[in-house]
Every structure is written in C-alpha cells, then in structure tokens.
Amino acid sequence: MKLQTLFFLSSALTLATAAGLAQAASSAVPYEYGMPMDIQKVIAMKEPQTNECQVITATIKFVDTAGEVQNVSYPKMSEACLFQN
Q1: CATH no. for residue 8?
Q2: Where are the alpha helices (DSSP H) in the chain?
Q3: Predicted local distance difference test score (pLDDT) of residue 79
Q4: How many structural domains compose the chain?
Q5: CA–CA separation, 6 vs 20, rounded Å?
Q6: Domain of 23, in residue numbers
Q7: 31-46, pLDDT tens digit by residue?
Q8: Terminal alpha carbon distance of the chain
Q9: What per-residue confidence (pLDDT) applies to 83?
Q10: Phi/psi of residue 66, each to 5°?
Q11: Residues linked to residue 12 through DSSP beta bridges, in sequence order
C-alpha cells in the first residue's frame, strides 16, 4: 500500500513540475520599444528554425540584477536571411 501511494505522489509531482515548466517557458513578455532591459546574465536565446527569410519571434531568457528570471520575446529576421542575396 505504501509503495503504491509513493508511486502515485511521485507521478503527480512530476506532472505538476512539467506543467509548471511549460507554463514558465510560454510566459514571455513581448518587448516594446524603449522597454528597459536590466540584464545581468543571459540564460538562453531561442528562435524557431526556418529555411525562409522572414520575421520570426525570438525569446531571450535572462536573470536581471534583482536575481529574478525574465523571459522576453521580440521580432527579428530569421537566420536564413544571412544566406540570401
């Protein structure tokens, strides 16, 4: 009985953690012109892969000087534009 309860609780905790991480990753604040970016350390920069030269939405995840993790999304030209004339 105790093993079954332990398994159930660990499964529930794993699912809750995964859901929390997915929600945190998708909660990027859109960048607005003039918005102060108080970046102390960059954690990750992500952008969708594409073979076409187009505007995409990239995301930067960083730690600010208060020690809080921030996610900011911003529009940019895709990397494919570097290889097209």
Answers
A1: 2.30.140.50
A2: 2-25
A3: 92
A4: 1
A5: 21
A6: 2-83
A7: 999 998 899 999 999 9
A8: 67
A9: 82
A10: -85, -5
A11: none
